[in-house]
Specification:
- The complex is a heterodimer.
- Chain A is α/β, with parallel strands linked by helices.
- In chain A, 30% of the residues lie in helices and 28% in strands.
- Chain A has helices at 28-32, 48-67, 81-91, 106-110, 154-160; strands at residues 13-17, 23-27, 36-41, 72-77, 98-101, 114-116, 124-126, 129-134, 137-143.
- In chain A, the strands form three sheets. In chain A, strands 5-4-3-8-9 form a five-stranded mixed β-sheet. In chain A, strands 1-2 form a two-stranded antiparallel sheet.
- The longest helix of chain A has 20 residues, at 48-67.
- The two termini of chain A are 26 Å apart.
- The relative contact order of chain A is 0.23.
- The model of chain A has no long low-confidence stretch (mean pLDDT 96).
- Chain B is built from five helices and twelve strands.
- Classes of the chains: A alpha/beta, B alpha+beta.
- Chains A and B meet through helix 3 of A and helix 3 of B.
- Chain A: One of its GO terms (molecular function) is thioredoxin peroxidase activity.
- Chain A: It catalyses: [glutaredoxin]-dithiol + a hydroperoxide = [glutaredoxin]-disulfide + an alcohol + H2O.
């Protein structure tokens, strides 16, 4: 079952690197509880579209999104926390975008937005999408219909707020 | 009542230990013994990005046939020991290895090719160390050197090791427990080359 507007996000635990570069757990409760969170998901850290357009777009628009009431902007991928941390650092996200690792893909599968990229040697990954979640409830959900970046970009999400 | 049955069978020249535990829920565990000196490397396929940024496949056969190869494995790209000590050691000593007749130095990890390429670039591996992706862990499993890092959010990875392989046969093997870094450095391998 794919998640839809009006649904509560499923419970899951992500990992993110702390200030010392060590992985720490981040639960969906901690992330979403009582907050306005913009989560965007990518198929893979260090892959072309994700690196050149999707993530940088959210770094650029972070201040504008925060001005519109978004508390947290988070980037999600089925990669481990070390890889997410290194990727975020290479793009220069600073404290603008929280890099979340859905290492075993539990959250991704639970929201029904996984895809099989085994042919490219990537295994099960996330589809590209962006959603606005308020206190754990999905208010906006833009899933890319095909390869490429359209409705899930920072500009699109900003326009829809 | 539990009955333990352990049978040893030979499978394509490799020993496989089979432990069958009979209970109300039957479970069979198949454990591949770790690779050893004198054995031929199992078949495997890796992905990597070449100098032109194209993703390519390479088999263990293509990598090793008729060549002298130093292969070392790490638990994870962008993890501390791997990034700060293990890979840099091999990048620094690459020329010395080549002088001693080594054709190729390759780093293997259970990560995808995009991650391995980015990591290699970050560590300035250049054309000194080939960064190979064992994305689905198939080669690592076939070698019998899996490392369970599921609790750390990393899934199944490789134990740290370094080996010297001649025409596909393991001549020198330095296999660590888990991710320890004691015997598998570039210096250790240089000193061990026949």
């Amino acid at each position: 079952m794919t998640i839809a507007i009006g649904d509560k996000v499923p419970s899951a635990t992500f990992r993110a690197l702390d200030a010392n570069g060590m992985p720490q757990a981040v639960t969906t409760e901690e992330l979403f509880g009582g907050k306005k969170v913009l989560v965007f998901a990518v198929p893979g850290a260090f892959t072309p579209t994700c690196s050149k357009q999707h993530l940088p777009g959210f770094v650029t628009k972070a201040d504008e999104l925060k001005a519109k009431g978004v508390d947290t902007i988070a980037c999600l991928s089925v990669n481990d926390a070390f890889v997410m941390g290194a990727w975020g650092q290479s793009i220069g996200v600073g404290d603008k975008v929280l890099m979340l690792a859905d290492g075993a893909g539990a959250f991704t599968k639970a929201v029904g937005l996984d895809q099989d990229l085994s042919e490219a040697g990537l295994g099960v990954r996330s589809q590209r999408y962006a959603m606005l979640v308020e206190d754990g409830v999905v208010k906006v959900l833009n899933v890319e219909p095909a390869r490429g970046l359209t409705c899930s970009s920072a500009e699109s999400m900003l326009a829809g707020l | 009542m539990l009955a333990n049955v352990i049978r040893q069978t030979r499978l394509t020249g490799r020993q496989v230990q089979r432990a069958a535990v009979r209970s109300t829920h039957a479970r069979v565990q198949v454990v591949t013994q770790a690779i050893a000196v004198g054995q031929k490397l199992p078949e495997g396929k890796f992905k990597y990005f070449d100098g032109e940024g194209q993703m390519r496949d390479v088999s263990t056969d293509e990598l090793c046939k008729g060549k002298k190869v130093v292969l070392f494995a790490v638990p994870g790209a962008f993890t501390p020991t791997c990034s700060l000590k293990h890979v840099p050691g091999f990048v620094d000593k690459a020329d010395e290895f080549k002088t001693k007749g080594v054709d190729t130095i390759a780093c293997v990890s259970v990560n995808d090719a995009f991650v391995m390429a980015a990591w290699g670039k970050d560590l300035k591996a250049g054309d000194k160390v080939l960064m190979l992706a064992d994305g689905n862990g198939q080669f690592t499993k076939a070698l019998g050197v899996e490392l369970d890092l599921v609790d750390k959010g990393l899934g199944l990875r490789s134990r740290r090791y370094s080996m010297y392989v001649e025409d596909g046969v393991v001549k020198v093997l330095h296999l660590e427990e888990g991710g320890a870094f004691t015997v598998s450095s570039a210096d250790d391998m240089l000193a061990s080359l026949p």
